[in-house]
Write a structure and sequence with these properties.
It is built from ten helices and four strands; from the N terminus they run ααααααααβαβββα. The chain is α+β, with helices and mostly antiparallel strands. The N terminus is likely disordered.
Amino acid sequence: MKKTIILALLILLRFSLFAQYDGPTAPDYGEIEKNIRISGSHFYYPTLMQRYLDADATMTLEEMRHLYYGYIYQPDYAPTDTSQYNALLAEVLSKQSFAESDYREIVKYADELLKEDPFNMRALNAKLLVYAQQNNVEDYKKAAQRRSVVQKAIASSGDGMGKQTAYYVIKVAHEYDILGFLGFKYGGTEQVEKRCDCNSLTLSQNRFGVDKIYFNIKPVLDYIQEKGGKM
């Protein structure tokens, strides 16, 4: 049964990652750190980030992985998710209907969140909602491309079925944000797993029959340790 579930997930991921996907591979953080510091390299971090912000659709999967996982070595990296804009954005999105002023606020709050976390999928989803309603095709494509980069990087790192094959994320918030893309809904329980750098989320009933999914959060735990146990 478990093999059938994993196969189903891999089919889903292969479809999502297209020809670039060869199977889940955990990120080699040491190699990534080395590569993104080489000026002139196609993995050089400032170049990767600019291509991401420009919504460059020619980025390879390895470049996406270097961009996402390499962010932990940037001065702005912080795995916290306590921005005031989370609540402000959620408040506007909770409305039954939107006026043009609401759309402006949604984009404003989403942009502020993306300044703090350029891979914030909730913020990107919010912008996609606005651009779809406004028939803004150009900006919709850009936001969709950026979201796709994050989704593909994470989905390429594991299958989530166990501690050894966990999906790798650089923020706990990204665990929740990626669930929909993977075909799941949060089941209500989060747990830091023992004897590994993993966190797990229970899942609502799903067509794969999966009860729990695992995420490797080593950069988050390392950050907490460096800060003396404080986020």
